């Protein structure tokens, strides 16, 4: 299939395009500069696989949780292509995306992103089932809901930090982590094509990012 994928949920943005068996990806660890580089990155990967936007079969993105700006940028870019060329956009949970390569791990997979302020975005998975839906949570909450007799694999960009805090709070836990840089867009392609095969609906016009937390601006406005 011909597709375009974006993971801009963290400071390291990855954009990939695939033209059947040919895939090109570009990862940029640029933090807030994503707004300057996203559109050139899309243009770059599409040209590398000899594709035009109107030739795409589908598009897919990490729909959250993640950085407010990064998520909004990806939605805006792909929704624009959807509007111009009537191409479907599929949304995948960021945490599901990070956990998906480890679905056969014998134990619990905790997919996590540092949400700052002593909080984490986390989801817990086991044997292709969701144990804890993605939420804005604490180490203490996670420890309270897991089976402490099982081996734990922490994944995602902040897996090391999360694993260290788990061990600090509960030293008896059997915890390992995987935080190496991987091409998350490959995960997005795989999940999206499974969704298409299962005839699941793409994102609707009114659907946007799943932040799991209000922005600082929203909180400030409510407190006025």
Automatic annotation (TrEMBL):
Organism name: Treponema berlinense
One biological process term in Gene Ontology: tRNA threonylcarbamoyladenosine modification
Residue ranges constituting the Gcp-like domain according to the UniProt record: 35-160
SUPFAM superfamilies named among the record's database cross-references: Actin-like ATPase domain (SSF53067)
UniProt name for this protein: tRNA threonylcarbamoyladenosine biosynthesis protein TsaB
Highest classification ranks of the organism: Bacteria, Pseudomonadati, Spirochaetota, Spirochaetia, Spirochaetales
One of the Pfam families matching this protein, by short name: TsaD
Domain of life: Bacteria
């Amino acid at each position: 299939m011909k597709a375009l994928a974006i993971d801009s949920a963290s400071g390291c943005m990855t954009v990939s395009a695939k033209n059947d068996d040919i895939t090109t990806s570009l990862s940029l660890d640029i933090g807030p500069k994503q707004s300057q580089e996203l559109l050139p990155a899309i243009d770059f990967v599409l040209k590398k696989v000899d594709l035009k936007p109107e030739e795409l079969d589908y598009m897919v993105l990490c729909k959250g949780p993640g950085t407010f700006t990064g998520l909004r940028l990806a939605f805006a870019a792909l929704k624009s292509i959807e509007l111009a060329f009537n191409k479907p956009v599929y949304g995948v949970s960021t945490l599901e995306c990070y956990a998906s390569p480890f679905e056969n791990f014998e134990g619990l997979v905790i997919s996590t992103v540092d949400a700052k302020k002593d909080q984490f975005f986390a989801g817990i998975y086991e044997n292709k089932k969701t144990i804890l839906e993605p939420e804005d949570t604490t180490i203490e909450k996670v420890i309270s809901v897991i089976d402490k007799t099982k081996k734990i694999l922490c994944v995602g960009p902040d897996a090391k930090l999360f694993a260290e805090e788990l061990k600090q709070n509960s030293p008896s836990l059997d915890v390992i982590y995987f935080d190496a840089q991987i091409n998350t867009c490959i995960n997005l392609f795989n999940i999206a094509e499974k969704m298409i095969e299962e005839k699941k609906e793409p994102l609707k016009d009114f659907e946007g990012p799943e932040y799991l937390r209000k922005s600082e601006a929203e909180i400030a406005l409510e407190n006025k």
